[in-house]
Amino acid sequence: MARKHVLVLGSGVAGLTTALSAADAGWDVTVLSKSRLDESNTRYAQGGVAVVTAAPDTVESHVADTLEAGAGISYVPTVEALCAEGPGAVERLIERGVEFDRNGAELARGLEAAHSHARILHAGGDATGAAIAYGLLESLKSSGVTVRENTMAVDLAVQNGRVVGVKLLDDEILLADAVVLATGGAGQLFPYTTNPTVATADGLAMALRAGAVASDLEFYQFHPTSLAAPGNSLISEAVRGEGAVLLNEAGERFMVALHPDAELAPRDIVARAVAETMAAQGGIPVRLDATAFGAEFLAKRFPNIDKAVRDHGFDWSSEPIPITPAAHYFMGGVRTDAWGRTSLPGLFAVGEVACNGLHGANRLASNSLLEGAVFGNRVVAALDDQFAPQFDEQWGAPIVLPPASSSGQVVNRTDLQHLMWDAAGLVRDEAGLSNASQILGSWSAPEQLDPKSVEDGNMLTVARAMVASALARRSSRGGHHRIDFPETVPNLAHHSGVQILTEAN
Fold first, then answer.
1. Is residue 58's pLDDT more than 80?
2. In the structure, what pLDDT confidence band is assigned to residue 259 with cuts at 50, 70 and 90?
3. Which fold has domain 397-500?
């Protein structure tokens, strides 16, 4: 009897964990990567992995911190699964060759914003994602998994309401018993982002065009500290976790007066505070002061950040460095249950492309790498299950959008990015979002001739859905801040939904 075949799209921690676990479970596995296999958001992740490894920390404490950061709408079953299964998932990463930093025999643990305990595992100082990617890629070599690099999927293949494979750029159809989206985030929707160039929302766009329900697309996390220099190099939360502080133009700490946790407040609060301070200074960047650490500590603890900062001509051991917010992480994605099942039979999603409610309105720092490891293992247990998941009253009925225009002006990526930054960035309002919705609705996707044209069409699809979701939520919560509706309304503590109209629905 032939083995069942699963297609995994994406090669970050979520995709590679899924592929390896599926192979271990007896599946015939093919991994597709639109670029090199080692090019993913995971490779660029600096901070670490949030997981309970030693007392006095507890799983219950990790759950509580995650729920607090999620601003009241994190889905409790997925939060509990992440925190309880996290230690085992990390052990599997170690077994697969990931080498975390240690203090002697004990795993080294750091502190980051909004965590009540030092529970952040790191590798290579600030190269945790790269270490995870390397370890999993090495394991992949002996796994029997088929790998296709530089292979662009353009759409899902759907028959009788079920996903049966993917269509490639060259019109080849790859068939499978199950398709797992692990395609990462959407940072390239914005002109200023910590994400690599591959983060163009491809999997989410394909799912939307196939009629899948997406959720919480209004919730986007902007990292408060990227280097205010070309490329927006990420300055990890862990730097503030070690004690670095934020200063205004006058050299004064401004977070102390705004939140009891000061620089270690939740990311959405710090990011908006940085943006507001910059606006009050006429756009001049705020400064991150890490001078108390000294050059030796910075080079050892944050070797990659240290190099990036110095490559831009800054000596952060002797002077505060300029920083600015940048698009960082998508809390929303393809709606899934706690096992990665989507609203379309045969289609699964895991990692940043998915929305299982874990992050709520604002992701807790360093939960994303753990999410990929935990739910990459979990999804394999559900691959044989083709039943649509059930969602409770926390999950709202989706807004239904018409298909994209086929006759309008072809979208220009730079124009889209700046429109999204201005209308759907750190602060939003009705006028800006409505205008953006009108403009996006007038643009059409380019013909799918090459990877860039496919990406541009995907970004347009997701931008339309994100703006519609942001318009519909007429209150502020976490990563979604409406200046015309600044209050967090308790009776709106639900997960949103959006769906694109297809012939099938």
1. yes
2. very high
3. Methane Monooxygenase Hydroxylase; Chain G, domain 1 (1.20.58)
Could you tell me if 441 and 185 are in contact, meaning their C-beta atoms sit under 8 angstroms apart?
A: no
CATH class for domain 225-325?
alpha beta
CB 217 within 8 A of CB 329: no
- Outline where DSSP puts E strands in 338-431: 347-349, 354-355, 399-401, 409-410
What's the residue count for the chain? 505
Contact in structure between 247 and 286 (CB atoms under 8 Å): yes
Q: How far is CA 409 from CA 341, 413, 440, 444, 446, in A?
A: 36, 12, 10, 6, 9
Question: Which CATH superfamily does the domain covering 5-183+329-382 fall into?
Answer: FAD/NAD(P)-binding domain (3.50.50.60)
Cβ distance 82 to 52 under 8 Å? no
Just list the catalytic residues. 267
Local structure of 366: helix, strand or coil: coil
Cβ burial of 478 (10 Å; 0-12, 13-18, 19+) is: buried
pLDDT digits (tens, 9 = 90+) for 266-299: 888 899 999 999 999 999 999 999 999 999 999 9
Q: Is the dihedral of CA 103, 108, 111, 112 positive or negative?
A: positive
Mean pLDDT of 185-203: 96
**Model-level pTM?**
0.94
Residue 96 exposure: Cα atoms within 13 Å on the Cβ side: 28
Encoding tokens for residue 352? 């940043």
Residues 69 and 85: their CA atoms lie apart, in Å, by 19
- Amino acid at site 71: A
| 339: its two tokens | 């096992």
Beta bridge partners of 8: 31, 180
Q: At what angle do helices 451-472 and 430-442 cross, to 10 degrees?
A: 150
Task: Please choose, from the candidates 54, 171, 64, 173, the residue with its C-alpha nearest in 3D space to the C-alpha of residue 110.
Answer: 54
Residue 473 to residue 152: CA distance in whole angstroms:
34
For 216-236, how does the pLDDT look when each residue is reduced to its tens digit (9 = 90+)? Answer: 999 999 999 999 999 899 998
Angle subtended at Cα 293 by Cα 107 and Cα 233, rounded to the nearest 5 degrees: 80
